[in-house]
Every structure is written in C-alpha cells, then in structure tokens.
Amino acid sequence: MSNIIKAFFLACVMVTTFNTHAAELKIGYVQVDKLLKEAPQTAETGKKLEREFSPRSLELEKMSSQISAIETTLENENSALTSADRRSKQRQATNLKIEFQRKQRELREDINIRKNEELANLQDRINNAVKKVSEAEGYDLVMYSGVAYASTKIDITEKVLKLLSGK
After folding, report:
1. What 3-state class would DSSP assign to 142?
2. What CATH code would you report for 25-165?
3. What is the pLDDT of residue 12?
4. Interatomic CA distance for residues 21 and 72, integer angstroms
5. Partner of 129 for a Cys bridge, out of 11, 43, 71, 163, CB 3.0 to 4.6 A?
6. Which helix (H) or strand (E) holds 143?
7. What does the alpha-carbon distance between residue 87 and residue 76 come to, in Å, rounded to a whole number?
8. Contact 142/134 with Cβ under 8 angstroms?
9. What pLDDT does 146 receive?
C-alpha cells in the first residue's frame, strides 16, 4: 500500500514539475513560404539572375529570329531556289535549330543551378534572422512549416521579415 502512495506522490510531483517547466517554455512559429515570397532579398535575387542571364537570352532570341528568317526564305523562295541552295538553307536551318535547342537547354540548366544557389543563400539568411529574433526575444523553440496549427500569438514571421528588411 505504501508503494502505491509513493508512486502516486511521485507522479503528482512529476506532473507539477512538468507543468512548471511547460509554463516557462516560449514557442514561436515562422511561415517560411511567406518569408521566401516577401523578403526583399527575393526580389533582389530575381533581378540579379535576370541581369546575369539576359545576354544569353538575347542571343537565343537572335538565333530564333535567324531560324525564322531562313524558314521564311525557304517558304517564299522555294520555287526560285535551286535544289542545292534549298538543301543548303534547310541544313543551315536544321543546324541552327539544333544549336538553339542545345543553348536553350544549357541556359535552363544554368538558371536552375543559380536559382538553387541563391535559394540556399536566402535560406541561410532566413535561418540566421530567425535565430537572431529567437535569441533576442527569448524563444526556447521556433518551428517552421509542417505545423497543423499555429496561433498568431506565436507567429514571429513579421519580426523576421523586419530584420531581413533592415528595419
């Protein structure tokens, strides 16, 4: 009988201790998708990538125009061209199309690689900002996406956005 009383007393003490510690726990939540959309660095990254890859995009546009011009010439002057000239222009158009497709594929791959690099940098900056806000405000636990419900009282997304914006 005394073992049951001791066990009950021990359970009560543990529940009381747990409740005391749980009351001291400060939890926060961050909406990562919102940060990725609204962080000023996202827009800066987009502009940076556009500047970086615009010369290659312009080159592809020129190649596309060349292909169209050759195909138009083939259509409009088909009867006036000798068979050798026609075959030459068809080969030229085919070679340009192949080169165009190769350059287009390379450009897409390079853009994807750079986007992933920039996204990794942005995620690092977001993680650092979350850490700074969490430490400054005394949070014990900050959770990212994958949460079924988070009250607006514990949502620190706006605070992290302010830090990222430099405000």
Report:
1. strand
2. 3.30.910.20
3. 44
4. 78
5. 163
6. strand 141-143
7. 15
8. yes
9. 76
State the amino acid at position 130 in one-letter form: V
Q: Which residue has the tokens 């897409």?
A: 108
> In whole angstroms, what is the distance from residue 45 CA to residue 106 CA?
20
Amino acid identity for residue 94 in this structure: T
pLDDT digits (tens, 9 = 90+) for 73-91: 888 887 788 888 888 888 9
Candidates 43, 25, 17, 13; CA nearest to 122 is 43
Q: Concatenated DSSP letters for 91-119? A: HHHHHHHHHHHHHHHHHHHHHHHHHHHHH
Residue 28: exposed, middle, or buried by beta-carbon count in 10 A (0-12, 13-18, 19+)? Answer: buried
Q: What is the pLDDT of residue 145?
A: 76
DSSP secondary structure string, 42-67?
Answer: HHHHHHHHHHHHHHHHHHHHHHHHHH
